[in-house]
Amino acid sequence: MLYASIVFKGEFFEEETNSLEKKGISWKRRNVNMDCYKEFARIYDELINSDIDYKTWAANILCICKEYNLDMESYLDLACGTGNLTIEIANEFKYIWAVDLSSDMLSQAEKKMREALIKANFVCQNIYELNLNNTFNLITCCLDSSNYILEEENFEKYLLGTYSLLRDNGLFVFDINSYYKLTNVLGNNTYTYDSDDVVYIWENYLENNIVEMNLTFFVKEGQVYRRFDEMHSERAYTQEYIENTIKKIGFKIIKKSDSYENKVVSDNTERICYVLQK
């Protein structure tokens, strides 16, 4: 039985496409650069699950849906990664879609959903260039994925795109690394991580409100460690800019909190969660 369809808008290696075809999964190829998260996809869950409580995030999002009497029919998760949040929310909706720029991340997400017997559609696409032939009651974009949009013009396109995909009274839930976190906590600092199977060095450089993150990984393979390097960039957006742009698009801010908790945003808040309604 087919539980997922995947549309790839980027380069997808032949061995991967052959593997999907054997599973009966449809795919399409278009040209978009998807180097980000390529190697990282394989070890992403090991590194992120110790820090992020996806079950609690999902539970809080679903509580908001019930609070606003949302029609639980169609759900879209943007920048879904390996599907950790998607799978926690999916069972509450009839139709599930997930978008990510990385085909490697989508392959991991598809595997999870297939093993959980959850039917879903996966699309490889940039979140500020959305082109989906559907509309949704709930859209999410979590884990500071919005910070990866480095230009203000594209941030506005991103919000406009989500607005156009939402049904009337639909909800858009997203979080963002705060200006304080990127400029005072992460910016120009170095971090390390060491476990039996993975070691990494994370060096940050802050310039013009953009943090460039250079990560060097050493992943154990048998008796040796294989090295690979990745570079990620996030932009620090002020709350004033975000909220002015939200209102310009036509959204209504119905909730703003410190992360996914019922806490008021403070000067030292590191993750800001917005709940918007069309």
Give an account of the 3D structure.
- The chain has 278 residues and is an alpha/beta fold.
- It has an eight-stranded mixed sheet, sandwiched between helices. Strands 7-8-9-10 form a four-stranded antiparallel sheet, covered by helices on one side.
- Strand 3, helix 5 and strand 4 form a beta-alpha-beta unit.
- Helix 3 crosses helix 4.
Keywords:
278 residues, 8-stranded mixed sheet, 4-stranded antiparallel sheet, 8 helices
- Computed Rg: 18 Å
Instruction: Work out the number of β strands.
Output: 12
Helix content: 25-40%
* N→C terminal distance: 36 Å
Could you describe the largest sheet, including whether it forms a barrel?
A: 8 strands, mixed
What's the shape?
Answer: globular
Report the total helices.
8
SS-based structural class?
alpha/beta
Give the topology string: H per helix, E per strand: EHHHEHEHEEHEHEEEEHEE
Proportion of residues in extended strands: 25-35%
Report low-confidence residues grouped into runs of 5 or more.
1-36
* Average of pLDDT: 86
User: What's the arrangement of strands in the largest beta sheet?
Assistant: 1-4-3-2-5-6-12-11
